[in-house]
Amino acid sequence: MARIPAVPEAEAGVLGRLVYRLMRRRFGAVPEPFAIGLHHRRLFWSAMVAELAFERATHVLPARVRELAVYRTATVVGCSWCVDFGTMLQRLDGLDVERLAHIDDYATDPLYSPAERLAVAYADAMTATPPTVADAQVEELEREFGRAGLIELTQAIAVENQRARANHALGIVDQGFDAACRVRLGDRAGRAAQPVQAPGQ
């Protein structure tokens, strides 16, 4: 259970209630970090704008590379909410989520391409305390992804560190989003599904 409660929908304000409804429609439930973040409304809206802008801007790297590095970052920090939500997003994007169970063996497992191994190793190096990124590593990443790709990968890992560490500090844990994703996929196949509600919503 989170260390502070989510803002109830009745107290979220007109725009906040609209966002809650849109999030339920898109994800099956209201993501708890957003519902908790609404306690500071200016930061909530700045975070919303930043997330939307980041989502629109990150299209240089293949999604499978970028999202794998983000997922790895979440596992290293220990943010179960990020792992849960990130798995759902990857599944909805049509990415192979079954291989995520083998992420600890990325360096040798044939499920991961050389480019993916470079990205995951970079996530490890950036997320370490203190970071262990080396010049040679950055040079290899630049050769593989180009400068714009390197910047995108760096930013994606840095942003996920921020999310994951904030969620960890606030005690925000997995919310069952990957289960919500399977329900949504079931809808597409014509099977009946029940809506998934966020805790406290």
Automatic annotation (TrEMBL):
The lineage of its organism: Bacteria, Bacillati, Actinomycetota, Actinomycetes, Pseudonocardiales. Residues 48-124 form the Carboxymuconolactone decarboxylase-like domain. This is Carboxymuconolactone decarboxylase family protein. InterPro entries: AhpD-like (IPR029032), CMD-like (IPR003779). It comes from the Bacteria.
